[in-house]
Structure formats: C-alpha cells, structure tokens
Design the sequence.
C-alpha cells in the first residue's frame, strides 16, 4: 500500500469521525473518563513514591522516631503523652551509640496575630536546638535555634509557609513580632515549603518555638513529651539499627513498667518502617484504583464495540459503494481501525486534560500527593489506543468482509 493511498484512507477516516459526531463524542467522552481515572492513579502512585523518598531523606538511615501512645490510638492529637524527659535522659545515657535524643512537643490550633491580621494555625511545635539537622527540615531563610535560645527560653519562632503567607503575604517576616495566643515571638526563620500533609493537616501549617519556651509560656506539663528523635552515627548499618530498635524498646518498656502481656505505650519508627508502611498503602490503593480504572476502560471499550457494530450496520451502503469502486478488504479494515485510533487519541487527550485538572484540584486540597510526568501521559495514551483498537477490530473485520452487492441492497 503506497503512501498516497494511506493518506486518502486517513482523510476518509477523519471525515467519517466528523460526519458521525454524536457517536464520536460519546466514545471520546467514555474513553476520556477511563483515561482520566488512570492518569490520576498513576500520578498519585508516583506522588506516593516521591513522598516515601522524602520521608526516607528526612528520617535518614540512622534515626528512630519515638512517639507517645499506642499504635491503636486514632490520631496523634488523641494519644496520651507517655514519653517523658526522664526517658530522654535515660536513652542518651543507657542506649549504646546514641548521639542525641531530641525532644518535640505538639500543641494544636493556636491563633497567630500580626497587626490586624489573624490566622489559626494547625500546629504549635516545640523543639530543641539545630532543628534542621535533627529533623531533616531546614530553613529557607533566617537562622536556626541555638543552645542559648533553649537555655534562656527565648521568645523566637519559625513560621511555616502557610501561616507566613496568611500573615505577611509576600513580605519578609524575619525580625517581625507575631503574637501566638497573645504571647509575643520574634520571627527568626522560615521553614522551607514541603507541600505535603499527614492526617489531613499540611506539614507547612505550623509555628515552631523552643521547647523550653513552649513549656514555660503555655503552662504545659513539664515532664511529658509528644515524641523524640533518637539519632545514631551516620555509618550505622541496617543490622545495627535493628539491634538499636530492640534495645530502645526493651529500655522504654522497663522505664514505663510494662508487663509481659501489656502492649507498648509508645511507637518506634525508622526509615525502613516508614517506607514499608507507605509502600503497603501505595500497593493497596493502587490495586483498588487500578481495578476501577480497568473496569472503566473495559466499559468504554465495550460501548465503543457496540457503537461500531451499529455504525457498520448503518453504513452498509457506503461500504458497498466503496468496495464497488475498488476498495479492498484491507482498505475498509484500515479505515475503521484508523477511526478507532482517532477516537482513542481524542479520548486520551480529553482524559489527560481531565486527569491534570482533577489532579491539581486534589493537590490543592491536600487530598493526595500528585506527581504528573510525561510517562503518565504516555501510559494513558497507549492504554486508550490499545483498548479502542481491540474493541473495534471485530466490527472492522465484519465491515471489510461484506459483499458489495449485498451491502448496496442494505442486506447483511
């Protein structure tokens, strides 16, 4: 088949798609919905992978997070603060290889004020010195807390990107005084924007102050901690980390006087445990959403096959006339497959646009982490074309095998 003949068939296919536009529009919309769901699934899975990688970088391979409360508790906000300063001191003194056990206190929904502007942030966090190296979350501008800030219970703070925008817009907040529940704090740093959330709350929606200041100014329990980050040397091996986790669990159970049958009243998280958990959730969600996407694509393919059967029946005279004028079975088959490919391309384009729009909408509400990429678009397009051509193959073969005389008489 020469190029001129191929181009002629392609033009005829495009004319047929436009001539039967109601059918074409229905098929394009059906394929588009399936591709949109597939695009969101692939993008959300990629986003989950990137989130797991960020968590791994934040934790580092030689750190353990110790959180108050049992794993069965519904949320961190409802968990009793079972960790104590005595636990911190005991860990630093008794667990071999520990470099530091950094404390963290959490308070919730303080009201911030600057001038006439007010904003209620989700989290008030109290930390020790060197917040960046300890928690793997560095400042975008300003300076970190020092030992002197912690010792003197200084009235200084970092702002997350969300409260910064709410109070200052595009202005620089460094050096400005913000009231946190009517307690004045000087802004000395801006936390770098993460764009991630946990438990429906954005990590960027917080104000961070020295932990000693938080206890002193907000009348909190002087003995209790929300969590700790226990750090070991950077060259600690995975096998050694397993031993450290076991030693830490044994020590905390003894410090908390837990019996053999009593579950832990704390939770230990390492880089590997976080990655395993995220991958488990990612796999479960991808299986469920993948089934939904496959069903949507198959339903679209089934509808397209039925519409093509109806189209072949309605276009018998056209098919007979083309055959009578010398069109071969191959020409007819190729024309219908080209029509299917054109409709699939239109459906894929619509689906990708819908997927991008829905993905950005979900990302703006922090519903899920979305990471769009050319690979996502490529997989969506390939899926659409494959399903469309496969579902149209039999109707196209039926059209190609028609006898000209019978088709011209409107006979099957």
Sequence:
């Amino acid at each position: 088949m020469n190029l001129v003949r191929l181009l002629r068939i392609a033009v005829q296919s495009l004319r047929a798609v436009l001539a039967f536009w109601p059918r074409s529009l229905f098929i394009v919309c059906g394929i588009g919905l399936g591709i949109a769901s597939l695009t969101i699934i692939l993008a959300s899975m990629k986003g989950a992978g990137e989130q797991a990688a960020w968590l791994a970088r934040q934790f580092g391979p030689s750190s353990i997070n110790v959180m108050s409360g049992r794993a069965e508790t519904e949320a961190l906000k409802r968990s009793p603060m079972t960790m104590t300063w005595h636990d911190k001191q005991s860990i630093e003194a008794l667990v071999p290889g520990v470099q530091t056990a950094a404390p963290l206190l959490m308070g919730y929904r303080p009201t911030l004020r600057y001038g006439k502007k007010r904003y209620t942030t989700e989290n008030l966090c109290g930390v020790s010195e060197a917040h960046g190296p300890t928690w793997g979350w560095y400042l975008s501008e300003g300076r970190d807390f020092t030992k002197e800030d912690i010792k003197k219970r200084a009235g200084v703070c970092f702002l997350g990107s969300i409260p910064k925008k709410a109070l200052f817009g595009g202005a620089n907040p460094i050096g400005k005084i913000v009231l946190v529940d009517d307690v004045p704090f000087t802004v000395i740093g801006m936390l770098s924007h993460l764009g991630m959330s946990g438990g429906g709350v954005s990590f960027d929606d917080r104000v961070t102050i020295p932990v000693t200041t938080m206890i002193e100014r907000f009348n909190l329990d002087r003995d209790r901690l929300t969590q700790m980050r226990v750090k070991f040397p950077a060259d600690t091996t995975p096998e050694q980390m397993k031993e450290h986790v076991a030693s830490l669990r044994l020590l905390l159970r003894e410090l908390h006087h837990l019996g053999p049958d009593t579950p832990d009243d704390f939770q230990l998280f390492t880089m590997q445990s976080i990655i395993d958990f995220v991958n488990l959730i990612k796999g479960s969600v991808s299986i469920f959403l993948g089934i939904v996407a496959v069903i949507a694509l198959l339903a679209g393919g089934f509808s397209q096959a039925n519409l093509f059967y109806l189209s072949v029946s309605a276009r018998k005279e056209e098919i007979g006339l083309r055959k009578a004028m010398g069109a071969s079975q191959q020409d007819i088959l190729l024309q219908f497959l080209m029509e299917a490919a054109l409709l699939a391309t239109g459906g894929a384009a619509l689906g990708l646009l819908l997927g991008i729009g829905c993905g950005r909408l979900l990302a703006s509400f922090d519903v899920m982490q979305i990471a769009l990429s050319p690979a996502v678009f490529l997989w969506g397009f390939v899926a659409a074309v494959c399903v469309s051509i496969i579902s149209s193959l039999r109707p196209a073969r039926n059209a190609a095998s028609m006898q000209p005389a019978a088709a011209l008489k409107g006979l099957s």
